[in-house]
Each structure stands twice: as structure tokens, then as C-alpha cells.
Amino acid sequence: MFSLPRLVVCGSQRESPELAKQPVILVTGPYLAEEARQHAEAAGYTVSHTPSYPTPDVLVEHIQRLDPVGVVARMGQFGAEAMAVGRSLKVVSKHGAGVDNIDVEAATRHGVQVIRAAGGNAVSVAEHAVALMFATVKRLLPLDGGMRQGRWEKAEFLGRELSGMRLGLVGGGAIAAAVARIVQGMGLEVAVYDPYASTESITALGAQHIEDIETLLARSDIVSLHCPLTDANAHLLNAKTLALMPENSYVVNTSRGGLIDEKALMAALESGHIAGAGLDTFEREPPEGINPLAASERVILTPHIAGVTEEAGTRVGVLAVSGIVDFIAGKALPPARLVNSTAETTCL
Fold it and tell me: pLDDT digits over 198-217, tens only?
């Protein structure tokens, strides 16, 4: 163990000579939970940071200058260029579960292990998904906006009850399970589509197992997405699949923005076929200017912060950092945390 002086390296700041002697863990973004930082420092590592959403050039510059042995991938893309310049880079640890912002293929070519910190933010994301359901179905934002503009819209308002609605969850992992636990106490009927989950695991949640996505969409008053983004399911919700949903149904997405064709969703909202949407993730993050969906009062948008709570940040941060420390120390990680296999690869 090393006793390290307290210093946070952020942006383009230079490290002191004393800190530069220690192996570096680079965090893509300006924040890491204090408990996670302490875990890294107690193991003899210096924690450094990039700015928020670093460009490829900024990320490459930080890796060339700092020569990290591990990276905690939080904000922005971690692409092939960054992998290629990592002279000492051994492991990229996702600050969360989804690794669509990491070039896993490039990591494998360069012998870099990619790991994930799944499950640590499940409760926080589930709570946010349910909050979006409530706010969207109950039309809280437009009603609040009307009050702030001096309108009393009681006479023309007719709301809906969530109790008795059919909720369709796409994905049956830890976040979906937490959503199911929350909403079942409120009277929602829950069904799950997950081609990788067993019927037994779904029924254990108190939910119905649906074997195809088309059936789930057709029977759901609310569809909530809780699956990773892959090449196979990009634009899972598009003009064709949105049309399968019942009239006046709702869409919630706290997973990955690329799962939804935003132009098709906007068209479905404008036609009235989709009654509302609660979105925490988007096809482009951060957006260039204002996302066009913001023009619809039927949509609630939040900036990919469903899992950004103090509690989740600590759990995920410690998982991400401890994964780096343990991997470099030669300790075995649970197979579910390993994204790729580097056993037979050679660094280029």
C-alpha cells in the first residue's frame, strides 16, 4: 500500500512529480465518487480526469501524457484511437453496464480487457423510469407550465390512472427487476420480453414472460426499455414497431437512445398514436442544440441522469475502480463482468 497526497487531476492540469510515479487510473469525465477515489489511492494509484465528454483528440492527449494502466469510462466515446496509444493500458472499466461507448473490438485487438459495473445503479435508474411514467401519464409538466402562465385548466382536463395499465419491459435484468418491484405495488400488470432470460426468472419477478417483441408491444399501455444497445436492436422502436402499440400508449427509455428512431417517435407523437414519452437517453448525446423532441409537450426529457445519484455513484464507482485494481492484481473477476476475451490476443 502507498500513502498518497491528496490531489485531483482534472482537465489539462499537470501532476506533481511525486504523483507521476504512481500508476494512473484515468476517468473520462470530471467526477468520481470519493469512496471510489479512496479505494484507488489506498491501492497505490493516482486518479486523473479528462474534461466532460472529451473529444477523441483530447482523450488521446490525456492517454499519451498520463499513460494510464486503467480507464474508468464515464462520458463520451472511447474509440480505437485511444486504445492504440495506451502504452500501459490493460483494462477499461465501464462506469455502469452499457458498453456501447467503448470500442470493444479495438480493445480486444490491443489486448485490453473491458469490464462492466452492472447492477450498481439499478435502483436509481428504476426509480427514474417510474418517475417518468408518472410524470408523462399524469401530464405533470404541461399542467405545471399552465399554472405558471396563469391558466386554470381543470375544466378541460381528463387524466388517466396508472393502476391497471399494462407495462411492458424490454429486458429482464437488474433495472427491469427493480421497476417491476416498484410498480406492482401500484397495480400495474407487468410483462417482460427478454430473449436471454428464462421463463422462471421472469415469473419470479411476478411478471408474465412474453416470447416476442411484437406481442409485448401490442399488449402494452406503457413500454419501458431496459436492454443494451447492439447492432441487432438499433432503432428497436421505429415507425413499424411503434405502430404495433395501442392507441394512446406511452414510451419510456432510460437505457440507450439508439434503441429509438427519434424521427419515427416524433411522428407517432404528432399523430396522437403515442400519447407521451419519457426519455433520459437520446440518439446523440449531448445533442447539437435543442433536441427536436423538446418541441412536443407530450415529451419529458432528462439528460441521461437516471443513474446519477449519490448512492448509485458510490456503488458503481467502487465497482468500476475495484475491477481495475483486482484485474491488474491478477484476481479473477466474475464472468458476468467481463465483456471481451483477451486471452489469445496480442497488442498491436
Answer: 999 999 999 999 999 999 99
